Amino acid sequence: MLRWILGGREAQGSVEKSSVLCIGEEQPKNWFTELQVLKGHFDIVRFLVQIDDFRCASAGDDGLVLVWNVETGERLQELRGHSQQITAITTFTCSNGLMSHTSLITASSDRSLSLWDPDTGNRVQTISDLQSSVKCLLVLERLCVWVSGGEELCVWNKDFQLQCHKQNHSDTGITALIELPKNCIAAAMDKEIVIYRLTVSTDSSMSVAEIRCLSDHQDQIRALINVNDGLFASGSHMGELILWDAIDWNILAYEHILWEESQAQAEIRMGAPKPSEMSIQHLTTNGKLILAAVGSGLYVYSVLTKTVVAYRKVAHDSNILHTMLLSDSELMSCSEDGSVRMWEIQDLPLPAEPATPGFFGMWSFGRSSKQAGPPLKKIIDVPNIRTLELTGDLIGHSGAVQMFVSFNENGLVTCSTDHLLILWKNGERQSHLRSLVLFQKLEENGGL
Amino acid sequence: MIGSPDLVAFTKEDEYGQTSPDPWALPEEFSVPLYPLADSNPWAKTSYAKFTKDFILISEFSEQVGPQPLLTIPDDPKICGTFDLNYFSLRIMSVDYQASFVGHPPGSGYPRLSFVEDSRVVLGDSKEGAFAYVHHLTLYDLEARGFVRPFCMAYVSADERKIMLQFQELSLRFSQASECLKAGNRRAFAKELQRKLRDLEYTHSVLQREEGLQREAGPQRMYSAHAVEKANELANVEKSIYEHRDLLKQISLYNRRPRRDPHAVTCQKCMSECLSECEALLDKYAKLANPFSYNNKGEKREEGQADGGGGDGEGDEEEDESVKRRPSYTPQLIKAKSAKCFDKRLKTLLELCENTFYSATVELLKETERSFRGDLCYLHTRRLDRALCRKQRITNFLFEEDLGDDDEDEGRTLRPFCAVNHAVDNYSLLNPPPIVLGPDHLELDSLEPPDPLDPASETSHTQESELGLRESHLESSPSDQTLETQESSEETKGSFSSDKSGLGQSERQQNLAGMKSEAPDPDPDSDLTPDPDHNTDMERESSSEETETTAGDDEGDNKEDQTPTSLLEVVSGLEASREDVCEGEAEEVSDLLVQIDTACCMAQEGFLYEASAPEAVPRLSQNSHPQPLSQTLVVNQEPQAQIPLQDDYTVGSPCSESPAAGLELPVGLLGDAVSRTSVEDGWDCTMSASTGSDRAASPLGYGGTVTLRQRKKAGQGALRFVRQYPFAMQALWCLLSGRTLVVLGADEGRVRRLVAALALFVPSPGKCGERIQAWLSCPFTLTDLQRWKLIGLQRVASPVGSSMLYSLSRYSRYISILDADQKTLRCPPYRGQLLANIADHRTYIRRGSTYFLHVQSTLCRLAAKAFLFTFTHHLHLPVSSTEGPEGLEGRRCCFLQEQLGLGEEDSHILLYLSQLITHQYLQPANRSSATAPCFSFNYSTSVLYKI
């Protein structure tokens, strides 16, 4: 399509051209028709947290935390204090009776933790000179405490007082933390998941004890999520997806995602399959479905049937960094290739006839060297598998899209290594809103 | 575009007497009147003028050689051709309208500086075919007779009507120039005085020493003839010192003098600076009355500095400078008798004013000359154009050239011209009292109810005195006399004094009388309001002619002022004017505080005419004292121009909301580069209608202001583009619907030319064309796309080029790409009809300027539609609560398609323009916070168009 521009030279433009999934420019289902570029960071923006309906905070390698108004694109606060990159950020909602107030807790490589008030931009609390930097944070709202994980596990109360801590012996430290029923915490440490239990004694002092260590993963655990009250899931670097019982910590399902055909091809081509191709980068769930980002592919797993519902081996040109399930049938992913893609889980038009011309036309769009054969050779063993259809993509960032947060109809915020945030919006809705404001102002002014 | 000269011939004349009730008719102020019937041959009068273009002439009435021309602007001998400047100078300087009163007035011991207001006359020399607006002014020169040097600046044109119709504007501009000259002159004069005083002081000390020696040497009680002579000389020098000191005082009082001239606006900062300077000098020399010796100047300096401490840094600085300068200056003995006027060299104009002020004035006059280029028709249509533009302020930003901010205020702000470029924030908001020329304003005045809050006792008093005075003015004001003499002596020249102004005045008087009778009871609290000051001002102003010329008497009239010495008053006035700067210092003179305030008020009320209409109008009529003068002077022209003239004067202002809005052009003199250059363009357009020539691409792009000239040149380029490329319509559609167009090419010149041509169609290009990037040779990012709507991109065969191509293909959904080398266009398909008439490659339009106007009118129509769409309530909001978004959508589609007749793609244009208007309208509210701009787009496939 763009060859005429290239003027015969096969340049880097071929990256786009060879993309398997080029949806083209006509995207009727894509309603993000307006964008705002939010500038403010000086380095890679890695984290986005939603504060409330209209605010979100972004943090990144420049140590800055910026609070944005999503409706207007305004920068509300600039939280300065960390001298090095931010490693974890979370919201901390404290509800005392009627009022609930949301604060931000940040952890940084400068081995400090800070509590911020996003309304005023003040640093409310701060702890510095920790023994090691904190890699993940978990808020236990029920107990009104929060947990920081790194080389040690620390439990803090809302006034930033250390309640108890537990040293661990792993080299890598805790990379992920989730809350489990019965005051338990699951922490991912390298190839193991360690279950801790918090006990509150009568004098309201706390203690933490290691109860169990689950070492069923063969490789480093990359993702750990709560699925629902009774389940949690973990994914490893080599593509293992394990579903655990949240109460007795038994394995309920073990799925090893192997892109068989891909491996076969890879052997033909190179011989050395890249492990990152099957690494589970990110897991999301809505309680019924688990969406796993496997390398540059997407993998939808049904919790109920414990089967793969739909998958797409090459969903992006590069590793997927973040995913989200918008509904039972819609999902979104962002990748190192700088794009955000929106997918829809669709039934195959005719199960008996999987290779409709349109379908394959889509797939074999580019005659690329990378994707030689028809990729959908054999659906694993599941007869009623559905397909992931690309419904739209958002191109704007010039670097990897690290993360995104959806504000539903208010829009979508993406952050990227190109130091920018982009606020994607529904152009029609925005124009309607602007019209409302215009007539309001017109009324206030009493005419033109 | 509506007021383009091309259209003049097609408009028909309206009868001004009857207002047509037709609601569809163009508002009267936008219609173009035809040339008056009385002059059937518009070339008849100008044909025998000996010069081709209008020019500005500065002449002086030299006391040695009489009237002589000094310089012309533009300074080009070809300008005047065979026109005899000497003779014309004689004509315009032969009558001194200022009637300055010089020398010693009876009853005062010292020579008085005459503070004379400028006068404005229109003179005609029908034999020469030259007409001139003549602005007389007086500068001070210590060596000149009566300390004054009369000058005049004249705008000379072959078209008398042009001058008459531009009178107000001319008067404003020349007033500014004159004020600038005078400000510089006052500084120079003060410096000269300083020098003179120093000399005198030195002479005095020398004489004193000699006399002392003589006295010691000679026998007691015996005066030799020599000694007597010395004593006389000494006395003379002393007298001279006193005189000069008095002069210094007078010049320092200049600013506090009430100004009758409504156009005399001066930079307050300059004023106060000058004042402080004089003040410092005055302080210094006030102490020298005692027997002084020149040697202890160190002490005096300290004293002077201590006294001058009240002033700000500038004054001190100035003094420091003078201190520094002092060693290099050797005082000279002053001879008892000064040289006679013929054997001394008179100062040049440059010497009379300081260099900065002089050059600033010349600049100002040059600009004035530029802005009046073109014939009356052109000036008139340009004004209509601007008036129209100002009416559509909301959509202007889309396609119109920027008018600048200065002329947009409804109450006109007159910025004082300041040669040294003081911050513009110190100008006073001023609604200049109109020079009433037709009955319209008078009726307006009479309709205006008298302000009940006006302190009527004083008002009526002043009115009475004023009326009386005005009568006397009518009969015996010197200007009238000169007019009459002129009339009697020079009837052959065709200048005469009209009776129209007299009629206007009698009407005015009646109005005033009516007002007076209606005036309510005196308000007991009136003393507390600021108005009494104002009234005393007026009273002073109108009480006698002397108050004008003798500044010292002001204090006697001023009842608030009880300080015995005028020096103190000046100090307090000085400090009052500085009050905002150094508030703390006011405490030192706390007992003078009240007086300071009033002095401050007085000093400013004289200049300030508030813009609030209902209050201002009666005040203006009270204050109309200066008007008769100018009024009678204005109308000094040939009879047949009378009647149409009146009509023409009112052309601009049938709406009575702003009495001053009529003919006056906005005075966007300062920094209004756009209008200035556009004027230049106009000259181009009307005079040398050859824009069709193939010139190099205009340097359009980031940084420079996009001027009308550039846009007209771009018109030629755009025409060529349209004729050359069959897909021009698609390209224009991309630009108009807000899709960024990238012009890709290897040849910079070609790309730049294309960009310059296409820039015409970029909606809201920004004041300096910020939305256009003429030449880019690095890969662009999304933010660039958001910022620029038209990009010229270099095609290079290098790694940079490939990454550029990568970005091109990556963002291809947001852009359209026009390949200048391969002559292709990649953009979404456009099948609309809207742009067919401006992008027809078989167009019959051959000239760029014609095409430009054609495009402008189309774009203007589009903007109007967009405006309608944006501000039509029911297209954006549901009419009832039950209505859903579908109904709204349907209605909008119906409006766009059926009522405006736009297809889907054409609707995109309108939606985009509407979006821009909405943004623009909402912008002031959002501007405070740094919100990122929105970038809208849509997802549609592109196709490739080829030639």
From TrEMBL, chain A:
User: Record's GO cellular component, any one?
Assistant: lysosomal membrane
Q: Name one GO biological process term.
A: regulation of autophagy
The alphabetical list of record keywords is: Repeat, WD repeat
Q: Name one Pfam family in it.
A: Beta-prop_WDR41
Placement of WD repeats on the sequence: 57-78, 104-126
State the species of origin.
Answer: Scomber scombrus (Atlantic mackerel)
Q: By what name is this protein known?
A: WD repeat-containing protein 41
The keyword Cell inner membrane belongs to this UniProt entry's keyword annotation: no
The protein's matches in SMART domains, at most eight in alphabetical order, are given as: WD40
Has the keyword Membrane been applied to this entry? no
Q: List the InterPro entries hit by this protein, alphabetically.
A: WD40/YVTN_repeat-like_dom_sf (IPR015943), WD40_PAC1 (IPR020472), WD40_repeat_CS (IPR019775), WD40_repeat_dom_sf (IPR036322), WD40_rpt (IPR001680), WDR41 (IPR040102)
Automatic annotation (TrEMBL), chain B:
Q: Where in the cell is it found?
A: Cytoplasm
Q: Spans of biased composition, class Basic and acidic residues?
A: 461-474, 531-543
Q: Using the record for this protein, list the coiled-coil segments as residue ranges, or answer none.
A: none
Q: Which PROSITE patterns match?
A: DENN_FLCN_SMCR8 (PS51834)
Q: Which GO terms describe its molecular function?
A: GTPase activator activity; guanyl-nucleotide exchange factor activity
Q: Where is this region: Disordered?
A: 293-329, 440-565
Source domain of life: Eukaryota
Instruction: Keyword check for Cytoplasm, yes or no.
Output: yes
InterPro entries, per database record:
FLCN/SMCR8_DENN, Folliculin/SMCR8_longin
Asked whether the UniProt record includes Cytoplasm among its keywords, one would answer yes
Q: Which GO terms describe its cellular component?
A: cytoplasm; guanyl-nucleotide exchange factor complex
| Domain UDENN FLCN/SMCR8-type as annotated: residue spans | 46-918
Where composition is biased (Acidic residues), the residues are 520-530, 544-558
Q: Which GO terms describe its biological process?
A: autophagy
Q: Where is the composition biased (Polar residues)?
A: 494-512
Recite the UniProt keywords alphabetically: Autophagy, Cytoplasm, Guanine-nucleotide releasing factor
What family classification does the UniProt entry report for this protein?
Belongs to the SMCR8 family.
Please identify the protein, giving its name as recorded.
Guanine nucleotide exchange protein smcr8a
